[in-house]
Design a protein that fits this description.
4 copies of one chain form a homotetramer.
Chain A: H1 3-13, H2 28-31, E1 39-44, E2 49-53, E3 59-60, H3 65-77, H4 96-102, H5 113-126, H6 130-142, E4 148-149, H7 151-160, H8 162-173, H9 181-192, E5 194-196, H10 198-209, E6 215-217, E7 220-222, H11 224-237, H12 243-249, E8 254-256, E9 261-266, E10 270-275, H13 286-299
Antiparallel strand pairs in A: 1-2, 1-10, 3-5, 4-5, 6-7, 8-9, 9-10
Helix pairs in contact in A: 1-13, 3-5, 3-11, 5-8, 5-9, 6-10, 7-9, 8-9
Chain lengths: ~300, ~300, ~300, ~300
């Protein structure tokens, strides 16, 4: 399969969508990004990389970081992790706080904001230097020592994140988080402030595609079966209330972020990351979704 | 892969679970089934069949029939089908009527009861003899001319199905169904009353696994891409509010029924059906889920 | 207090609102009513009547009939009635079916459609000729033997009442009603099809105002305390999701109907009925509410 | 009416209920109150006081203070207040956060916690020294200069009030409150920490009963009509999800608090306050409700 050529063609084919959607503007750091940027990178398990456009420009990965947090928590807690957080899709956005209230504070999955706060809480309770160790883990995954948090982004989010503060307080009320609400929110926003390029993201996701022998990075270990199960969670829960749509159109496990990034994997073949800041009404990158849909359509390769 | 041997081993390994769960008892025809029956059949795309125990005993497939109805509707309406019904997972059972009310009568996916009623409505509007053509389609899929509806089951369901009657009336109120409420309910319950054996179910699902050239049965045609997309919908929506759990434990697209049956596929490899009447709290077969979990664990084959 | 003069003044003062709102059009019999009709009648416990405009024209009382059904059920069952239906306000319209689902089929109050169906079910189970006895009771209350059901209205409602059919089926599913769904719906719609004039309605409500010695009509008896408690239920639950607004603006217990009628009482002083078909967004008569607000404002008489 | 004698009789009659229910224990200051204390005081508009037992012992009035905040806000903002907060009953507890989310951050009434936070926000924006002026207003209402906030109670609530913190953040997210979340919460908890005796509460509520000439206290003024409307809001919204029950059993406008106090009024006759720390499942004082039910039953006086 000539992925390099296919990626070039995809880039041309998605141009008609280049002005569709709106970038996130709730904090200055996201609002100031050039919405016309586009990057894409595909890494095969055979060690090949294929890049398009701004594949080496870093952007705010936001919710994509929840995948890394989940891997760490699964390594730390094993199957008992699922006593703290569910693994069912969340239905619609409508459910956010409603769901927590009805289900007594247990978030339905680790990729909802509430669920990721539980992950943050677990890391805070389990690690000596959670911020450092989280960063080390991601650096090890992608093999790049220069990736960093963006403190300004984390602080902006913290200052304006009233909905997330409501969620964290509700979790504390239900005793679903152990640490201080402020501490949980700080660490949650710090994780989300990670900045990576498409190439770095694709490399960081490659171990989830190349799972035959499990993985071990920076002291965190998962068996092959655990990695496959994480992929299953990405498949059913990775795209908010558009998980079904992404599954239907793209057919790969993946995770999106409000910064316009999407990372996905084709098990035992490749990982792929794409970035374009303009989002659709569900909060997922318009061109990113289109590019991935074309990728699996053109290659006729998907998990289904 | 020696599937025959693996199935035999699975049958032994799941014995400790043989008394777990409770069979459906809301109608006599289901309550009277021997809850100790177990059957399993795996069909490879190479034409091999592997059967265990009562793989040739017919049982009530119930919701599994919704997959056949979806294939017909997708063939008839193409992508415009999704204007009538969504393709997102439904979250929890809690949402059933709530979801319809909040989302103005559009069922979230075709495998919720409400969604399958929309499928029934489409078939009623599109076909001259919907009951006959539905049966012909399923017979063609599995190559068995003797499979039939069980009229007693359909009638029992109709008489006691007050929740389904509520759902159908709510759909009519929102103008999501065109035909008479009674007609929709009758056809819906008739489809669900289909009786098939594990072998017949596995054969009927094989075309969904063996999709390289699309399929055409009894006048209904789907492209390869359409079949793959149907598989995606099964993956995210096929197990009520346990879709995430099934994805996590088993990692195959599939569909369960309250009669204790589950059918699933491993794309481009095999289809598999299993039957055991005792259900867990979410309405899915206890031994059926366990058997499929072991199948993908032992073979190390899953879509992830 | 010169109620006659006050009513005349009110009629003039509300003219600016005479074209506001929209009459119900979901069945022909309601759609065909002249929306410009207006009637009002106040009856004091001293035996005086004061009428304005079309106070003797009959219209469809619709939900106002639920008050009569409640009085009969309270007479038949006493306090045990409240095991079958609640007496708390329902919050918003949003809750209709949601509320039933979350609270396992117990309607929150007897004036929601679901609650009134429970009343219908109780009358069906308790009386030999429920339709006849209900009519006799209302005739006795208002002293008019010529009031009748409108069979055409009942039949139209029955044919198009899918939301109510959904509610009745949901009640049956939860075993909150004992009788056949069809029977409950038929009787429910029959009760609502009652046609009365403002004068007849005011007379029928007078016993609820004049409760010092309880009451006994057509074999149904309530103590003074029971009547007062019924008035309390009207106060908190009589105006759908506008009960607070009516309490705030008018300050009298009452009940509205989608035909544009409102009946209310000032305990130990008077009863009053008003009719104007144009409804506000909550389903209550625009001019009716305005007229009653002016009545308590001008007289400075309200229960608060 | 010999209220003194009636109160004495009530005190004897409610003894069988003296151990029913459970006092609030979520903060030490409430958990440490002697649950066997009981006090009651009735003040007529003619200037008579009737007291029973510990009518002069102060306790934490908690949510009863919301009535005072509402009076101040209504004086400051007039009818425009209702653009910020609704006046409809809230249905069940189930709705708390759900309701806010569905209705875009507008609390359904001023006596829900969310609604009272909006009142707190308005006072913070309108007054120079909100804490001082609130206290002055209540002191003026009851004519007692020694009533005070309990800072320890306010601080305890603040430290453990995660659900309230969630609500405040959600209001801020919806821009329903203008001031800092922390500031709103601090003032909200401070208002609720007010300590008053039954006698002081009854005196503070007397102006709401004796509304013929409106009222003016400490610079805050309401017309007679405004006071009556406030009474209507108490009637429909004063007892959480037990407003219907209280209306039904007692038939007076009032407000309860989690400290075990209830204040109520009989318009143009009397105000009454009762205190007993043991609460029923809805958070209202068991003996308090029983005492008030007996009061209106024995006297045959209620608003209905």
């Amino acid at each position: 399969m000539d992925y390099g050529k296919i990626l070039e063609e995809i880039f041309l084919k998605i141009q008609p969508y280049s002005k569709e959607g709106r970038q996130a503007t709730y904090i200055p750091a996201l609002a100031n990004v050039n919405p016309d940027r586009f990057g894409m990178c595909l890494c095969t398990i055979d060690g090949e990389d294929y890049c398009v456009e701004s594949a080496d420009v870093r952007f705010s990965v936001q919710s994509i970081s929840k995948v890394f947090a989940l891997a760490m928590c699964l390594s730390l807690r094993g199957e008992s992790l699922w006593e703290r957080v569910g693994k069912e899709p969340s239905g619609t956005a409508f459910n956010s706080l409603v769901q927590l209230e009805v289900e007594k504070g247990i978030p339905r999955n680790p990729f909802m904001n509430a669920g990721a706060m539980v992950l943050a809480d677990i890391l805070l309770s389990s690690l000596d230097n959670p911020e450092e160790e989280f960063l080390s883990f991601v650096r090890a995954l992608c093999g790049s020592d220069s990736i960093c948090y963006n403190r300004e982004v984390a602080m902006s989010e913290r200052e304006t994140g009233f909905l997330n503060a409501a969620i964290a307080n509700l979790l504390k009320y239900h005793a679903t988080v152990e640490n201080d609400v402020e501490r949980v929110l700080d660490f949650y926003f710090t994780m989300c402030s990670l900045e990576m390029s498409c190439r770095e993201l694709a490399k960081a996701f490659l171990p989830f595609a190349n799972h035959r022998d499990g993985f071990a990075y920076s002291g965190f270990m998962l068996t092959s079966s655990q990695v496959k199960r994480m992929n299953a969670v990405m498949q059913t829960c990775g795209f908010y209330d558009e998980a079904g749509e992404f599954s239907y159109l793209v057919g790969l496990p993946g995770k999106s972020g409000v910064g316009g990034g999407i990372a996905a994997i084709y098990p035992l073949r490749y990982s792929v990351a794409v970035w374009s800041p303009r989002l659709n009404g569900k909060g997922n990158s318009v061109m990113g979704m289109k590019a991935l849909e074309l990728l699996t359509t053109e290659t006729k390769e998907s998990i289904f």
